[in-house]
Amino acid sequence: MAEIEFTEETKQQVERIGSADIVVGVAGSMAPEDLRLRAERIIEDLGSGVPPLRFVFAWPGSGAEPVASLLDRPAHASLTVFPFTPPAHPGSEFWAPVSANQRAILALAASLSARACIVIGSDLGALNAHAIQLFAYAILDRQCGLAMPVYPAGKYDGLVNIGILSPLSRALYGRRIRYPLAFDFATSGAMSARLVRGEPSANHHGNPLLWPVTLAATQSPQDPVGQVHIDVRHQISTEGLELSAVLGQVVGSLFQDLETFAPQWQRIRGSQLAPVWGNAPAEERDGDPIDTRSMLDSFLLGSKNLDEVWRLVLPPNTMLELRRLTRVAPEQFRIADELWAGIVYDFALAYHLRTISRVHLLGALTPLYLGWAASYAREVATLTRAALEQRQEQFARAWEEKKPYLLSRWRWPDRFNP
Amino acid sequence: MWNHVQQSLQSSMSRVMERIATLLPGILAFILAFLLFLFIGWALAWVVRRILTALHFDDRMSGGANAIAEWSPRLTPSQLVGRIIFWCFLTAGVMVGISAFEAGSSESVVSGWILGYVPHIVGAAILLLAGNVLARFVSRSVLITGVNLNLSYARLLSMGVRWMILVLTGAMVLDHLALGGEIVELGFGILFGGIVLALSLAVGLGSRDLVSRSLEREATRTIEDQQQPERIHHF
């Protein structure tokens, strides 16, 4: 059982507050006064729309911030705003601090016996009455254990999510969730406790990222999972970080969960539809097709140089197919859905078997991913929004259909090697 | 005269047989000691592996043993401990065997020399193994990082790094074995310098076009990126 240890100061504050109906936590540092103003506005906006609820807004603050003044000036009877000291976390790059804060917020919600916990990204984009109301509706009215966001996205946004995270999570854990790794999400009170305590201790120490959908599907499969449209475009800062480093952290973490929850995902067949509430934002024009030449060049450079590494991970059929792709004209370059799903499954298996160093393995995935991204970007360039949705659904189904391949290789890695 | 030849042949034969007879107990003692330690090492490694598995050693180490896993990806921490124990016992078996050979054969000169040289051999073997693992790991790291940085000469860099580490390892091994004397130092200096020079020439002259194209492409791409807003977002 993975317990989160808070400082004495935070524990005292939690004791002072006692309990809450809804805990809204910000998973990152921000201006406390801004949070306070927004929190007050949200309570006012919700006003007559919802029955009186006790809201607690929390953010990871340090001792230097004006804790006392905020605690002593509650602007609304049902509102408490307080900072907590987040526990130390192992990773310091990209998503690791976000996940550490998300875990801490869930633990706070569990300590306060909250009926719902809403986790918000530190840019506060989703901290508005509409988003809070939607999340609260999904958890309190529709009895969902977990509500994930659906963000408005252009054709070329969040390609790692479209190409790996979402279809892999869906195929493995059977929930059709668009964003399995999100800044904003909401959980029921019971689910908050399960998400924090449900992580095996070894995984908690080893895996710095929190995958709410994975945990919900494996630890509490009976609880429904829903989605809500959140009209926010988060700016993700990857400044100073290489694509391979970021891809390595995110995909490596997902692969690590694959190992931890192998008994659970091997039993799951197909996938369940996750209802979506709220209105999708108006369609935006994505403009002209983009130039995929640089991504294609990266793929070709990888296939020229990393052949010896890929050969250790990928079966001969896949290697043949990749070699064929290096010879086709750029306008005919297309990585088939089944091929791409198979490649990612093979990398997941190599991660599990430690065929080569894991750092090398995830580094060697980057040129392949760029090849897929080039192929995908070229393919969807002319599609309408509805056609794009259909295409993404077809893509995700290909991963589900390919899952038996992963199962066979996972169970009999030596015997089953096409 | 024929009698003299016969006598000297007989006496040399008997001396050789005597020598073999005196060495035989020592050889047998060596084999026995070696086999005994081999068995003990194997059994102890098996027992330790079992105990560590029962104690979930691998799970406990999964947080902090990532470095071990990176260097030895195919072995779990408990397997690694088991293998280290086995090889320690095997080395001890060889040393005890040589000592037993010395006691059994009363040939202290040979066994004494071998016994004194064993630590050098063991040290050299460890150096060779570590050098090879390091060369493979570092060259692969350079290759993958180079490819991800879009460097066309990533393979060349990786090969250069690999050979530099291997040459350095070879020189250290020979030095540790006290073989070659100054020739090794001199040879290493020439070879190491030669590789660096060859790499410089290859990159500077032979692959000048390749490198300049690669750098140009990167520079152009950066300017293009600055000119038009990024339309692809991976995250």
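Chain A has 17 helices and eight strands.
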